[in-house]
TrEMBL record:
CDD domains: AdoMet_MTases. InterPro entries: Methyltransf_25 (IPR041698), SAM-dependent_MTases_sf (IPR029063). The keyword Protein transport does not apply. It comes from Nocardioides gansuensis. Residues 38-130 form the Methyltransferase domain. The lineage of its organism: Bacteria, Bacillati, Actinomycetota, Actinomycetes, Propionibacteriales. GO terms for molecular function: methyltransferase activity. Keywords: Methyltransferase, Transferase. The keyword Transferase applies. Pfam families: Methyltransf_25. This is Class I SAM-dependent methyltransferase.
């Protein structure tokens, strides 16, 4: 989907995603000292807003201005301190940042080459000691899980993500890299009448 398609999707409903943060982003960032962060491909800003509430100064980057505008309104409505989230309309594959303590990418769905560019941009924006955190739909979810994209070209494994960082010349220490289960409750636009399991990949590394 291009930016226009995402603009239309975000404009068609109150919130496409939940207002709260992704469960893995919240869990993995809980032990980090707040600093300067980017939420790359932020969408409606749920993770950026949560990080700001924890004391982070966050740049929320997405190529959908409609999504960013919704995030900014939500942040204001719930009382996020002004100036703690900076809303930037830009493409994750070309955005450039620097001197960050944390880079978050959650469920960015791109082709392999575009994905690698976004991963490189996020990692290169970190200062030494910074954290790269990615959550995505795992390749195995297509056959073993529920929901998520049905195009295998935009799915990935933790090994794929680490290979992207290696190809970019990244030096890092792996904190976590693997497949994680996410429970999808009945009624969340998934098939069936009971809770099901979706499979995500999670990568957390510290830049050397």
């Amino acid at each position: 989907m291009d930016s226009k398609a995402w603009d239309e999707r975000y404009a068609a409903t109150e919130l496409v995603w939940s207002a709260g943060p992704n469960q893995f982003v919240a869990a993995e960032c809980a032990d980090l000292e707040p600093g300067i962060a980017v939420d790359l491909a932020a969408g409606e800003g749920r993770n950026a807003i949560w990080l700001a509430q924890q004391g982070w100064n966050v740049t929320a980057v997405d190529y959908s201005q409609v999504g960013l505008d919704k995030g900014a309104r939500l942040a204001a409505e719930i009382g996020v301190r002004p100036g703690t989230v900076h809303w930037v309309c830009a493409d994750a594959t070309t955005w450039i940042g620097a001197h960050l303590d944390l880079a978050v990418i959650a469920y960015l769905q791109l082709s392999r080459a575009e994905r690698a560019a976004a991963h490189r941009n996020a990692f290169n924006a970190l200062k030494p000691g910074g954290t790269f955190l990615l959550v995505a739909h795992d390749s195995t979810n297509l056959a073993e899980g529920t929901g998520g994209p049905q195009d295998p070209a935009v799915l990935m494994t933790a090994e794929d993500v680490l290979a992207d960082l290696d190809a970019a010349g990244g030096a890092y220490d792996v904190v976590k890299a693997g497949r994680v289960a996410r429970t999808v409750q009945a009624g969340d636009d998934h098939r069936g009448d009971q809770a099901l399991t979706a499979w995500d990949c999670l990568v957390r590394v510290t830049k050397r």
